[in-house]
Every structure is written in structure tokens, then in C-alpha cells.
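re: ur question from yesterday

yeah so i grabbed the chain u mentioned. its 130 aa long if i counted rite. heres the sequnce exactly as i have it in my notes:
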Amino acid sequence: MYSTRTLSVSIACTPTKVYEFVRDPRNLPQWAPAFCKSVRPAGDNWTVETPQGPIGLRFAPRNALGVLDHYVSPAPDVEVYVPMRVVPNAQGSEVLFTLFRLEGVSEQAFEEDAGFVQQDLTTLKSVLEA
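ran it thru and got these C-alpha cells back, copy pasting raw so excuse formatting
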């Protein structure tokens, strides 16, 4: 089993508003700028331009449960599962993002990735609460 870290942020917006914003990959450059420089459709999926080059992205089917799981393809025939949820928190929302430490990823790189994810979640909060 991989080690994991679940990161979260509370956002003073309805779960529906958060879900719809995050589910639209065209919004990625606004809230995850260190990860996504730009994004474009690629059939039913998306291509994200990252600092490391283009990667594929696809989301779980639209649902009423706040499931924003997505799959990142950094190389052909490689797909990384990324669990993500929006859950109600009183009048607002809690966004949960689980990061897996995959084989070959050092503890230092995993900690750096977790820091980037937390930074992106903080930016998401700022963008949606503005």
C-alpha cells in the first residue's frame, strides 16, 4: 500500500458552487497555477500544460455526491488516480484531496507535492471567496 496524505480546506461557498468550479478544467489555471499553465479539450478528456510538459486529465462522471476524483496521465499508458471530494460543512464546503506517495517518490518529493497541493487548495479558497 502507498502512504497517503489527505489535505483539506474550508470554503465559505455552497458545495454546488465549489463542485461546479473545480469540475471545470478551464478553471485550473486560476486555482492551481503551479500545476496548470493552460488547459485544452482533448476529445472527452483534457490536456493540461504543466511545467513538466503536457499531461492528460479526465474527471469521474458528473454526480450529486461531490466526487471530483480525477485521473492524470503523465505518460502514455500511465494513469494516476487522484481522489477529491467536496462535502457540506454547515453553510459552506470542505474540499478533501488525497495524495498518494507512489513508488519511486522520495519522502522529500512527497512533502513538496503535499505543500503544492495545500497551496492550490488555499488559492481555490481565495478565488471562490473573492
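noticed a couple things. The first strand starts at residue 3 and ends at 11. also The chain has one domain: 3-124.
anyway ttyl
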